[in-house]
Amino acid sequence: MADTQQLDQVSTAQNGTVMQRPVQLAPGLPKLLHKTRCALHQCPELGFQEVETSRYLRGLLEQNGLEVHGPLATTGFYVDIEGAIPGPMIGYRADMDGLPIQDAKQVPYASRNAGVSHACGHDAHMAIGAGVALMLHRLRKELHGTVRVFFQPNEEGAPSGSIPMIRDGVLDGMEAVYCVHVDPTLQLGIYGLIDGTVTASSDRFLVRICTPTTGHSARPHQAKDTIWIATLLLHQLYQLLGRITDARNPAVFTVCIFKGGTAHNVIPSEVEFEGNLRFLNENDRDHVKHYLQRTTEQFAALHEVKITLDFRSGLPSVVNDPHMVSHIRDTIHLLFSKDAVRDITVPSMGSEDFANYLEYVPGALVRVGTRSTRHTSFPLHDAHFDIDEHCLAPTVQLMSTVLMDHTRLGVLVSS
Q: How buried is 407 (Cβ within 10 angstroms: 0-12 exposed, 13-18 middle, 19+ buried)?
């Protein structure tokens, strides 16, 4: 699996410590990253099923001298790169799972697993994470403290894979954590940074309307028309945002699943719908959830039916630590140029389970530009999604330098 001859070309600093200048990448690293990313792209696996993915990565890291710890959270694991110089422990996360989307690309490295693909770029995240671990392992004599690089299952699913990773101790002793996410809206060579809120919170909800019996479509007045009640309830819920919340605060209410009935002339005894609530304002999040609960209770009483509302596996917002973002910004300027930074002014309404780690330690998420042609311009979660792999090596260089400088300089972080 691992190409140790290529890895041996990765060199440490020749004069002084590597911390006095950017981490230098050897010519062999881009080839190794390409090989790793393509291999992972061909065998995507769904959340908590990343058995072959985990085996491949463990083999790559172990064959290059790293000790792998785990499993955590079923298929997750980590490596600790312990520096020769005392210092703090910080972390770097890579997510492993694919999406239940058929790969539509016509490329040699297309997914070989029917109905599953890395349409969110987690193959690139893993390749970068492995590259960071291998680079820091080679530079451990110049490293202060310890860097834990960990690979997490089920970022896309619910319940989030970060929760059992935390429960299994991945954050123990850690003072800060970093990660990256590929971004096809940014040009290759550009890194997106934002202080504070990066993504929206996300709460999954399920509403179920039940009655004791079915009814005849010709006589709805003699039954409890669950379809009608559901549509009335949805009509009210879709109008909440901007009415009970400040319209200046971004928020999204979306229903994506609606189930009810099996015959064209039978009113079903049960109807359910399911979707997402997303907020950038935490007060709005709590207020709307409580309002939804009261509304469903009142509808149940009014129509004399049973209505249950279940909130599932909510994610908080990713909130970047401003000091860590400033540190990343300075490193990008040092390695590349000031033009390589794109200041993101509007947070994403998407969600990221990296947020769960930030409930315990400060952290920062960096967006990595991957667009260079029409073929690399498809949005995340599109069946044609792909990246320009020229982003991989520079991002390994960036994050390796960020991590090494953090442990040496003692980057100020929010408590």
A: buried
Give the distance, in angstroms, between the CA of residue 230 and the centroid of all CA atoms in the same chain.
33
DSSP string for residues in 245-280:
S-TTS-EEEEEEEEEE-SSTTEE-SEEEEEEEEEES
Tell whether 415 is covered by a domain: no
Cis peptide leading into 22, omega within 30 of 0?
no
Structure tokens at 383: 């069946």
Q: Are residues 213 and 260 in the same domain?
A: yes
Full domain range(s) for residue 55: 4-199+317-409
Q: What pTM, to 2 d.p., does this model score?
A: 0.91
| 183, 87: one domain | yes
- Pairwise CA distance, residues 267 & 344, whole Å: 49
80 and 15 in a common domain? yes
In the chain, which residues have pLDDT < 50? 1-20
* DSSP character at residue 26: P
- Residues 298 and 324 both lie in one domain: no
HEC string of 90-102 equals EEEEEECCCECCC
Reported as type and span, the H/E element at residue 59 is: helix 51-62
139 φ, ψ to 5°?
-105, 20
pLDDT in tens, 149-159: 999 999 999 88
Residues 88, 94, 96: CA angle, nearest 5 degrees: 150
We report the CATH number of the domain holding residue 300 as 3.30.70.360
Indicate if 18 and 158 belong to the same structural domain. Answer: yes
Length of the chain: 415
Nearest to 166 by CA among 76, 35, 278, 31: 76
Classify residue 326: in a domain, yes or no. yes
Is 268 a domain residue?
A: yes
Output the pLDDT for position 17.
35
Give the model's pLDDT for residue 86: 96
Amino acid type, 138? R
The token duo for 269 is 């005894």
At 313 the pLDDT is 74
pLDDT at position 414: 67
For residue 146, is it within any domain? yes
- 251 and 390 assigned to the same domain: no
Please tell me the distance from the alpha carbon of residue 359 to that of residue 160, in angstroms, as a whole number.
14
- CATH code of the domain containing 189: 3.40.630.10
Determine the Cα–Cα distance for residues 264 and 363; give it in Å rounded to an integer.
53
Lookup: tokens for 256? 């994506």
E strands, 280-404, are 306-315, 319-320, 341-343, 363-371
